[in-house]
Amino acid sequence: MLNIVDVSKSYNKGAVKAVDSLNLSVPKGEIFGFLGPNGAGKTTTIKMMTGILTPDSGTISINGYDIQKNPLEAKQSIGYVPDNPDVYEKLTGMEYLNFMADMYRVPKKERSERIEYYLDMFQLKDAAGDLIKSYSHGMRQKIVISGALLHKPALWILDEPLVGLDPRSAHLLKEEMKRHCEQGNTVFFSTHILEVAEKLCDRVGIIHKGKLIAVGTLEELKSSEKTASLENIFLELTEQ
Amino acid sequence: MLLQFYIGGKALNQPEIVLTVSFIAAMFFTLLFGIFYIMSALYFSKDIEMLLPLPVQPWEVIASKFIVVVANEYLTILPFLLPAFIIYGIGEKVSFWFIIKSIIVFLFVPFIPLAIAAFFTIFIMRFVNFRKSKDVLAVLGGILGIFMGLGINFYLQRVDYENPEIMQKILLSQRGLIEYIGRKFPPGIWATNALTLAVPNDLIYILYLIGASLIFMIILSFIGNGLFYRSYSAGQETHAKRKKFTSEEFQKQTSTINTPAKAIFLRELKILLRVPVFALNGLAGIVIVPVMIIFSIFFAPRTNDPELSTAIELLKTKSDSFVIVLIIIGISVFAASLNFVASTSVSREGSSFWISKIVPVSAEEQLKGKFLNGFWPPAILCLLNTVLFAIFASMPFINALIALSYSLVASAAFTYISMIPDVVKPKLKWNNPQEAIKQNTNAVIIMFVIMAIIIALIFGIVYAYSIQLDERIIIAALGGVLLLIFFLARYFLFDIAVEKYKRIEF
Q1: Which range of residues forms the domain containing residue A217?
Q2: A115 and chain B: CB distance < 8 Å anywhere?
Q3: pTM of the full structure
Q4: A159 shares a domain with A226
Q5: Looking at beta carbons, which residues of chain A come within 8 Å of B244?
Q6: Closest-approach residue (CA) in chain A for B249
Q7: Which residue spans within B214-264 are E strands per DSSP?
Q8: Average pLDDT over residues B461-486
Q9: Whether the predicted pLDDT of B130 surpasses 50
Q10: Contacts 24+ apart (CB under 8 A), B400-403
Q11: Among A103, A119, A152, which residue terminates a domain?
């Protein structure tokens, strides 16, 4: 589903290497957790996967489509939620969802069903007619998640999706993620909450200073680092 | 035009008139548009929320924001003042001391008009914050302020040629013309006197200007200290009904499918109209300027300007002439040069631009939607212009049709041109909506580019008339040129600039 081959990205004309020769493959049906300290390169990697940034070198393919060469086909397979829910404050929630449905060409019947489903799930039905400007941070996060998933993308790319969500919504989103992968789809998400990664992810990858320093199932990582918890693994690996 | 003021003033032994006119124009322009800038800096800036909890007095916030607005204003008033300084300086062979004084006076020119704009803005925002539709009222308040300013300016600038006492005073008094033109806005006279009088009188007027600027700032700080935080805090309350859709309403809401281009157009339209700063800046220029022109031509009192009266009568008797067609096209393209909607079409997305990057919609399709939103204001204006002239000048239908179609082609071409710089290099990082427009050099650059094209067209037409080319040939040639510009602009936008747009990183 997701193939990242030898991808690098620098800023300030090469002075800052944000991502350094990253190689990663995520198959269908997997929940993959992408971990790393602040400034490690998680968001940069995710932005390259979604086409917001262009890699300096390497290739990224989504569902068989190269994000640089076939961007429209690749993007149709992606549902992306950024870490900061900056959306159009002057649109109502409903207007935003309809806009996203138009962008992803969601048919009328399915659009209606899915909008209702997500508004119900996130308890946003009362607020859908109001401007997004009147929403709290958590509500904005929910409307962005709803907009990203309307078109039933095969690959969910979520950058710290649980931040700002109330416990109920966070639980529901985690359940959705599991259900999504059980149907043969893929979730790629970054998080700082290691307990969530431990419970939810099939595999995790740890990025530090732009390099992927560890990747595998939790059992593989625990046995290789000879430690019991993901937190210890993370702290040991990122101290170096 | 400034040169003509200088030459005319020189003939009356009052060459300083060029400076007075420039100062009045710069201050007036600053006052008119300062309402938007102040409104944006004080009420729509994201950093105010961070300042509110800090142990900082409201007057300190106002003063610092005010200084930032003043600093940004210098680039705007430079085209008004620098040419006048140069013309007067060369013509009068001024000393180095004139240059020093020019710099000092230039620095203080925006203070008083911006302070007045700030009084108006703080008052209007204090009032509208009690209402649900504060954004709409903010826009209406801004427009009211502009039209009030225009009306006042129109009233002040009328010179009663038929009053012998006034004419005697203007012509025979040493600085009669300056004092008459600047009579209702003394800072214009102070600035002129500061530059043109000898020591120590010039220093006195410099002190007047600086002193008055500081007094206005102090009054603003005092008023703002009492009103600003209250009006700002109330303004942050966004009206939300929290009303659930009925089943029928929900079906209706989700039943319309739009093409991506149309969806983008509708998104842009809603945001444009719902953000007061975007609406005022984007639409004010293309509404106000033609209204001013049309008002001047058709509704202004005639007694004060015999030449204008003659021109209007000639216009009516020559209603079948292509000259009226050219005038309509001229007004339309001039308004198109002020089309900030097109020239900030990408910048206005700001921090939400990531959405445009991740959706599976081609860049070309996105630009089509943006073009539609950039084109509708000048298109409506073209229609309005044509209808007004057709009615008041009794134009033949075919001439009106030619005028409308040429205006639309020209407006579309200039909309494409206006979009190009912003598509290539948008200003996406801004704290308040005004920055997306005012601190966006794309909008300013493209305005000058379009002005240059318009001037070239005017020269071409004037030359064609001077060699007595058949009017039909002139009109046909103009149509050909406009179509060429249209296709070239479209090519540059959709074939060249679009490649840069695809590579924008965010």
Answers
A1: 2-77+154-239
A2: yes
A3: 0.81
A4: yes
A5: 125-126
A6: A129
A7: none
A8: 91
A9: no
A10: B402/B322, B402/B325, B402/B475, B403/B324, B403/B325, B403/B328, B403/B329
A11: A152
Q: Per the structure, how many domains does chain A have?
A: 2
If asked whether residues A140 and A159 sit together in one domain, one would say no
Q: Are B327 and B403 in contact (CB under 8 A)?
A: no
Per-residue model confidence (pLDDT) at position B303: 46
* The pLDDT value given to residue B144: 66
pLDDT for A123 beyond 70 = yes
Do residues A71 and A159 both lie within one domain? yes
Q: What is the DSSP letter of B494?
A: I
Q: Are B368 and B290 in contact (CB under 8 A)?
A: no
Indicate whether A128 and A26 sit together in one domain.
Answer: no
Contacts of B248 in chain A (CB under 8 A): none
Q: Are residues A112 and A139 in the same domain?
A: yes
Q: Indicate if A219 and A102 belong to the same structural domain.
A: no
Q: What does chain A come to in residues?
A: 240
B423 has a pLDDT exceeding 90:
yes
Helix (H, G, I), strand (E, B) or coil at B44: coil
Cα separations (Å) of B476 from B322, B462, B502? 11, 15, 38
* A136, amino acid identity: S
* For chain B, domain boundaries: 2-235, 260-502
Based on the fold, state whether residues A134 and A145 are members of the same structural domain: yes
Question: What is the phi/psi pair of residue B314, to 5°?
Answer: -65, -40
Angle at Cα B67 formed by Cα B62 and Cα B68, nearest 5°?
100
Angle between helix B397-424 and helix B322-337 axes, rounded to 10 deg: 20
3-class DSSP assignment, residue A19 = strand
Cβ–Cβ of B257/A53 closer than 8 Å?
no
Q: Do B240 and A134 touch (CB under 8 A)?
A: yes
Residue A212 to residue A23: CA distance in whole angstroms: 8
Nearest to B38 by CA among B143, B137, B116: B116
Q: Which residue of B has its CA nearest to A50?
A: B358
- Residue B103: pLDDT band (50, 70, 90) is very high
| pLDDT tens-place string over residues B308-357 | 555 556 555 555 678 888 888 888 888 777 778 999 999 999 999 999 99
**A220 plus A158 within the same structural domain:** yes
Rounded CA separation B385/B400 (Å): 10
- Residue-level pLDDT at B131: 47
| Identity of residue B98 | F
Rounded Cα distance between B267 and B255, Å, is 17
Q: Is the pLDDT of residue B170 over 80?
A: no
Which of B266, B271, B352 faces A86 most closely, judged by CB atoms?
B352
Distance to chain A for B266, nearest Cα, Å: 9
Contact (CB, 8 A) for B355 and B384:
no
Please give the Cα distance from B122 to B230 (Å, whole number): 10
Amino acid present at A149 = L
Interface check for A11 against chain B (CB to CB < 8 A): the answer is no
Mean pLDDT of B448-468: 88
Q: Is the CB of residue A91 less than 8 Å away from at least one CB of chain B?
A: yes
Alpha-carbon gap, residue B410 to B322, rounded angstroms: 17
- Model confidence at A227, in pLDDT bands (50, 70, 90)? low
**pLDDT above 70 (res B46):** yes
**Tally of CA atoms within 13 A in the half-sphere of B99 that contains its CB:** 5
pLDDT at B383 over 70: yes
Mutation to test the B interface, candidates A103, A131, A136, most B Cβ within 10 Å: A103
| Separation CA B86–CA B98 (nearest Å) | 11
Angle at B370 between CA B369 and CA B371, to 5 degrees: 90
Which secondary structure element, helix H or strand E, spans residue B216, and what is its range?
Answer: helix B201-235
With 0-12 CB in 10 A as exposed, 13-18 as middle and 19+ as buried, what is A223?
A: exposed
Quickly list H helices, B44-95.
48-51, 58-92
